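Researcher: First entry.
Model:
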Amino acid sequence: MSTDEQATEAQEIELRSAGCDVVVQEHGSGASRARPALLRLISDIGAGDVLVVVRLDRLARSVSHLLQVIEDLAEKGAHFRSLRDPIDTSTPQGMFSLQVLGAVAQLERALISERTKAGIRAAKAKGKLPGNPGLRERRPEALAKMTAVQRASYGARVQSNLNEWLPTVRRMRPDHNWDDIARVLKQRGVDWTPERLRRAVKWLVRERLADPKMLDRASPQLPEDRLMTLVAGISQSNPDLSLRDIAAQLERLHERTPRGSAKWSASSVKNLLDRARRLGLVAEALIP
């Protein structure tokens, strides 16, 4: 719902009638992508589940945001359905409608770009400066509005790819420092600086989407303890990795073995994993 004054009963009745087992409510602007309840819902949803809304505008106010949500669901093996719109990703007809929406979104972006360029050219021809006059004049209300927009935009960026990096951070913090975690993520294709990563986690904690303990100071560790938790973090972030895969990743990270060698063997990794397993850091054995 957009405001606290709006009632949710009608939507809930319609959703229950459609067979929904769990109904999630969220109050806030649908135009904003900073949607904590929606984020938690997508995080908890499982393969085979269906996210159902009464109307598309109850989920998103832009086609691009809608497509992003549906893409996140598809990656988890879940589907999406709108009761009053021809969108049901579990059916061929629904997928066709989704493809049409994608084409509309692309056209919309192109038209907005063209209108923006035309407006700038017209303003310059009249001798006007492009941009917001309030920002140029440093008006407090304009600056406050810009700050709010920037915060909302930052929150949307942080939430756009959470599944790619947050599980690893949760497993490794606060046992490891931000540099170690950034290096592990880089090997998985998520190239963030330690400071950018820490800032994103701070935002999640502030929005109550992450455990505040993730921001605790990392305890000093003995070299072998640090390697053990690093290997445990790598294996837990990607359980499909073999011992040799982890060894190769440690070499790419320029980590040295407990004996100081630059070359890692599967047995060296196994020794650290066995120790981590005894401490409860790793649940399942890896295939050599």
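Researcher: Second entry.
Model:
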Amino acid sequence: MAPASKSDRKAPLDAAAWMFNILTSVGVIMVNKALMATHQFSFATTLTGLHFVATTLMTIVFKWLGYIQTSHLPLSELIKYVFFANLSIVGMNVSLMWNSVGFYQIAKLSMIPVSCLLEVVFDKIRYSRATKLSIVVVLVGVAICTVTDVSVNSRGLIAATIAVWSTSLQQYYVHSLQKKYSLGSFNLIGHTAPAQAMSLLMLGPFVDYWLTSKRVDAFDYNVTVVFFIFLSCIIAVGTNLSQFICIGRFTAVSFQVLGHMKTILVLVLGFFLFGREGLNLQVIFGMILAVIGMLWYGNASSKPGGKERWSYSLPIDKSQKHGLLSESGEHDGKV
């Protein structure tokens, strides 16, 4: 009865974690879209640095309240994580600036197979045929509804490649570091947020000037812009925290696959809030296909053998394998 009871508790917590991530991610995207498109605040890297300042303040409060306990993360691991995380942020911004929207979307989609490759190489994960097919359906569905014009240039290709690999590695390390050093989501973000805030605030203004030829300190700030920046930072705290929670509970691949639900919601909200130009049967079909693929992936990967870790140390019979191996990080730890 105990395992069943634990499973019953896990399911609603998993669903709550996903919903928290989806709502905060979509919220920060919509606020940033209004901030940058309507008010011409185009300093994305500096804004991300401010997001991590707000997240750092949150971790200080949580530590004071006792929700974050003292823990250890080696400096070498912290530097490695912050390097890939910051490279991901800068790479995605540069990729968006230098590539067409269509190629940018293709680059984002390619993070799923790259994340799969990282799990296969480093964690010895094996995917079932149904799990692989469900990922393909998600990729095709999202591509149909998001990929339009596709033009490639050499510098844009380099930027996209850096963005894809650094983002995939950053998300992989979120899951890996939590397991390796027995860190909770709050503990890990308590280590990484201050380092990212400091480094991005030092780096951000120079990167933004390089990309936009505008100085963040020379921007004409007003009450509305400051309010949107503040709102973006508040929502981003939830986005950063929920990303660590979701990847810690699942894996980077699951986060990428099911995370495309955010892409679908952003499209739907964009059509309703910013006009329905571009909404057609092809887009609707792509959305439906992507949602079907996500549901299929959730079902296929949760079944025994759907997504499991190879174990070479001891022979395990079929019944034992079904009992021990699953997608969750908790079960992976037992293996």
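Model: Note on the second entry: The mean pLDDT is 82.
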